[in-house]
Amino acid sequence: MTVLSDPSGAPDDFPAKILVADDDPMILELLKGAITSFGYQCVTATNGEEALERLKEGGFSVVLTDITMPKMDGMALLKEAKNLYPRLDVIMITGYAETYSYTEVIKAGACDFISKPFNIDELEAKLNRVFREQTLVRKLEHLSMCDVLTGLYNRRGFDAKLHEEIPRAHRQEYPVFLAIVDVDGFKKYNDEHGHQAGDLALQAIGKVLLDNTRDKVDICCRYGGDEFAIILPYTQNGQAVSIAGRILDQYRKNPFGATTLSIGLAPFIRRPEQSWEEDIEDLVRRADQAMYAGKAAGGDRITCDDSLSADNPRCA
Asked: Cβ neighbours of residue 220 under 8 Å, at least 6 residues apart?
């Protein structure tokens, strides 16, 4: 089953990664030692600008930042971080002399604050609370974005993950591909064998997708009916075609009746003159068109967007 990741994309089986920003080396060392002793990963920055650079590495669950820092203070960092990573939790470190009140800090987007001099037990308790809430959010999201039959993301989950992944890929400069998978002859199979058999076939296809994609990297979805979608981040042209090829080859070994798979594949292309929404719609349209072209040609094949076909012999 596809497991929903934390807000920043950090794998669930890795220790949570926390970014600490403070211009006082002693405070940084103290916080890093404490956070590491709690069982979390810790990365440090000495000001807001450096912290924003660190955030580009990805995988952070929480930012713990002092308010008073040179170059970019904690409030400016909070604003920029929440703008770039809306679901990132930020805890502010405040001194008694700070001009910002608790209410102002929370209204600005922080999830909590801790006062200097701080107590290590209090810090651990606040971090534990944040991670409990993140876990609860993930569980609720899973219920709302999970397809009950296959355990994959549903259409709502697909839309959410695509709109999350595409801007991040552009920001961090890595490629993303989209595969649309349709079951050829599924209606006939369903009519002849019954809906229960059809459901078993869809479950099996979902497992084929999971077995042949990268765990906690690729995002497998049930797009609707007998159609599936796979978001493939960190993927070059040949690798995307290879993943689609593995799926096709495995299904050919154990098909359901006379059904086959048609797979359409397209890369994300950023066009500055268009909005993000237009670029995402264009990606889905091109992958969908490639898939339908494959079905029209007889199905049981990978059909690639025009930008890929010339370089890949498996592309129809």
From this structure: 2, 152, 153, 206, 209, 210, 213, 228, 229, 230
User: How far is Cα of residue 219 from the mean position of the Cα atoms in its chain?
Assistant: 8
Residue ending a domain, choose from 140, 163, 194:
140
Provide the Cα torsion 149, 301, 175, 41; round to 10°. Answer: 40
DSSP state of 59: -
Residues 204 and 132 in one domain: no
Q: Read off the tokens for 315.
A: 């592309």
Pairing assessment for the beta strands 60-66 and 89-94 based on DSSP bridges: parallel
Active site residues: 226
Residue 204: which H helix or E strand, with range? Answer: helix 195-211
Distance CA 13, CA 4 (A): 12
Residue 32 CA to residue 245 CA, distance in Å, equals 45
pLDDT in tens, 47-80: 999 999 999 888 899 999 999 898 898 999 999 9
Q: Please tell me whether residues 46 and 162 are part of one structural domain.
A: no
pLDDT in tens, 230-256: 999 999 888 999 999 999 999 999 999
CA atoms within 13 A on the CB side of 303: 21
Residues in the chain: 316
Q: Are residues 97 and 39 in the same domain?
A: yes
Q: Let me know if residue 11 belongs to a domain.
A: no
DSSP, collapsed to helix, strand or coil, labels residue 290 as helix
Q: Is residue 8 part of a domain?
A: no
Residues 65, 117 within the same domain: yes
pLDDT tens, 268-299?
Answer: 988 888 888 899 999 999 999 999 999 999 99
H/E element holding 62? Answer: strand 60-66
